[in-house]
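ok posting inputs for the (5S)-5-amino-3-OXO-hexanoic acid job
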Amino acid sequence: MTGTLITVAPTGAESSKADVPALPVTLDELVTTAKECEALGASVVHVHIRDDAARPTLDLGRLRATVAALRDSTDLIVQLSSGGAVTDPEADRLAVLDAGPDMASCTMGTVNFGDDVFMNRWEFVVELHTRMRDRGIVPEYEIFDLGQLAALQRLLDKYGLPAGGHVHVDLVMGVPGGMPGTTEALVACRQAMRDLPEGTTFSATGIGRSTIPVMLASLSTGGHLRVGMEDTVTYAKGRPVESNMQLVARAVGFAQLAQRPPLTAAQARTLLGVPV
Ligand code: KMH
Ligand code: ZN
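and the output
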């Protein structure tokens, strides 16, 4: 498939509404954002939710309501974050799967995360992978550093392919503590992915100012794109991001320039092995 899968990650768990007023934090704001990003060319939404005080939460009732609302209003593939915030306990992160999303993230190892630590013990990763497979939830394997691709190979060798049989990886680049958001690092990952099952696909996102170099490197090596205010809150020097739509529109422009126009949600389901 020659098109580009565009994932929007509109909210994340790190920015506060006070610092970033354009961040979608209510269910209404999230659904409106998702609809508008879908109309522009996004096909997957990577979801973190907030509570009434706009703090990150993994409240199961809210997650279920969010999945239902996104399904009602869009055809997007709904991918819930199982990463949550760095403070979230493993049990709550596993319980995210009970909300029944199409996809969920599965981070392939522990990484320093700014001043924090994003913990992903091996046993926890195995539990996420196997529970997702048992429930037919398609994982997106989040890779913050090169060695995590070797961990993914080990996971698949030992525990088998995920639900849907297709392996999709997201390179999260430029986190302070993880791999840098550079073409060189992306190419190193691309080469390491040759050891993964045939047909493995990848998207990439560059945190902060690495967003543009990572988009260009991903497109030019056959990869897909993830953009959104989870990863980028500055559009250009001195210009805060106005909305997630602004970031999706830029990604669509880059994809068209690369002659790999955005995939529809239906095409994305076929690519990723997500049932309709
Ligand atoms: N918020 C980060 C600690 C994911 O969504 O799976 C983890 C994260 C990855 O964003
Ligand atoms: Zn996330």
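notes: The chain has a mean pLDDT of 98. The two ends are 18 Å apart (CA to CA).
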